[in-house]
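Can't paste images in this forum, so I'm doing it all in text. The chain is below; anyone willing to post the predicted structure tokens underneath?
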Amino acid sequence: MERIAKADLEPLFARLRDVFAAQREALIDLDGKVGDSDLGITMNKAFNAMHESVAANADEPLGKTLQRAGMAAAKAAPSTMGTLVATGFMRGGKALDAADAIGTAEMAAFWAAFLAGVEERGKARRGDKTLIDVLAPISEALALAREHGATLSRALDDATRAAAEGLEATKHLMAQHGKAAAFRDKTLGLQDAGATVAYLLVDAMRAHASSGEH
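Text version of the structure:
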């Protein structure tokens, strides 16, 4: 699949819903090491709500559908991480207001806006051991893919590899934000839970584009 059309959004969000349902317990366990143990529950609620929103808004433009999905996530999961994911989708959707499909250029624009929204809302920077440590490599990889004229599938392959490297790197960082910041030294060696969510998100997009499913 080299373009994600409006009709492809519902199956994409069904995949996201299923991924976060399958990863629910793993995220609870990961978050529980230095957090509130609610991340898996929160993301399960958020992506269920986003899928329902996308399915219910089949007649709206692509960008508006993504923005509404973000709003649905904010309402269903009003936690810190739920709010950040919601903000990312709302900003990403706004960046695609004029798009009728998502190719490499649009995907790069979506993730750049997603990153900017999370940075602004979360007041965190790269290196703080947050989802930004995965969002930034994703955005950079997609920008480079756009410059090189890469296909969407190739671009998402590159972005997922960059995300995996960013996620692995969080093990060597100390948390600076949220409840995990109270366990600063204990967070060394642990994969960041929020960064894991960002990795799962882009990996699901990669799998969807690679499947060619419509």
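Strands lie at 4-5, 101-102. The chain has one domain: 4-211.
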